[in-house]
Design brief:
Elements: E1 6-11, H1 15-26, E2 34-39, E3 51-55, H2 62-70, E4 78-82, E5 85-87, H3 91-98, E6 104-110, E7 116-118, E8 121-123, E9 129-131, E10 143-144, E11 152-155, H4 157-163, H5 175-185, E12 190-200, H6 211-228, H7 231-235, H8 237-254, H9 263-279, H10 281-291, H11 299-308
Parallel strand pairs: 1-2, 1-4, 2-3, 6-12
Antiparallel strand pairs: 4-11, 5-12, 6-7, 6-11, 8-9, 10-12
Helix pairs in contact: 5-6, 6-9, 6-10
Length: 324
């Protein structure tokens, strides 16, 4: 018998996006054991019977709002959804049927046009993450990936008990990368479940390539790297980041690939984000020192994880920046 699953939805504006997500949950072949909506604003919310609504104390970013909901859950596997997602009717049944061990389970996330948003994330050597399979119609078999997408993911109870929740210092963007890397350090795998399908309205909150988003992505990527990446990867960070940024800049000039649509303001935002992340590196290193005694895998195994999840060079000029 498949395990009972709780569902947590994080929303800021509520409205039609949230209602469409809840309608998708109402059509599930296997109903959630409990559905909790966390509203990170004072927006009024009207939901169907049986859905619990929690308001945060005031407006806040995704990480803090998600943690508010996770604090009330965790005894069962919990699915975290953005409000701009709509799960297919077999979504929860497929996720539940895939659980064979404690870990993180990543569904197949589609765009409204039916192409792939992501099947989890690949990783650059500096920790920058990009969406796997974006823009394709590929259906890969069940496998593992480098990092999960915060837009839709399932955590088993032991992950939350052992690794903890999102780092609220991140605010928005990169908190999923950080938790992914921390979970891998604790020995958990991130499994892709191709039969669990959810549709995502990509970039509905911040836009796909806004300077604000780019700043946050680069700032938080730097902090996640310092906290969890192997020492060898950290030593090479100026080189690996320089190569990546140069390739993104070239792609932006050509109008395609990782940097497409960013423009000059995006480039400035990226540099500012890296500078901000570097300035906050001592705090991230302090968290690393606290985490390290509980790590299950060392630097060699972590390097292997980066290698297995690496972005193929052939994709550098054809992959879009990941969105939450």
């Amino acid at each position: 018998m498949d395990p009972a699953i709780d569902v947590l939805i994080v929303t800021h504006q509520a409205g039609h996006l949230l209602n469409e997500c809840l309608e998708g949950l109402a059509k599930q072949r296997v109903s959630p054991a409990r559905t909790v909506v966390v509203v990170s604003s004072h927006a009024p919310v009207s939901v169907r019977s049986g859905v619990e609504v929690i308001h945060t104390h005031g407006p806040c970013d995704f990480a803090a709002a998600a943690n508010r909901g996770l604090s009330t859950l965790g005894d069962r596997p919990v699915v975290l959804l953005n409000d701009d997602t709509v799960p297919d009717p077999n979504f929860l049944a497929a996720l539940g049927g895939a659980i064979e061990a404690e870990g993180i389970y990543q569904p197949r996330i589609l765009l409204p046009n039916g192409t792939v948003d992501n099947t989890g994330h690949r990783l650059f050597w500096d920790g920058f993450n990009v969406a796997r399979d974006r823009g394709t119609t590929e259906t890969r078999t069940a496998d593992t990936c480098g990092a999960f997408s915060g837009a839709a993911v399932l955590f088993t109870p032991e992950v939350l008990r052992t690794v903890g929740v999102f780092d609220e210092d991140f605010g928005a963007f990169g908190e999923d990368l950080d938790l992914s890397l921390r979970a891998v350090r604790h020995g958990f795998q991130i499994h892709h479940v191709p039969g669990a399908v959810v549709t995502h309205r990509l970039g509905a909150t911040y836009g796909r390539t806004s300077p604000r988003k780019i700043f946050l992505v680069e700032r938080n990527r730097t902090r996640a790297a310092v906290r969890s990446l192997p020492v060898a990867a950290l030593a090479l960070l100026p080189l690996t980041t320089g190569v990546r940024v140069a390739s993104m800049g070239a792609a932006a000039l050509s109008g395609s690939g990782l940097g497409a649509g960013a423009g000059l303001n995006g480039a400035i935002a990226a540099l500012a984000g890296m500078a901000a992340g570097t300035a906050q590196a001592p705090r991230a290193w302090g968290k690393r020192v606290v985490d390290r005694p509980a790590w299950v895998i060392g630097d060699t195994a972590m390097l292997r994880h980066l290698a297995d999840a690496r972005v193929p060079f052939s994709d550098w000029f054809g992959t879009a920046i990941s969105d939450q």
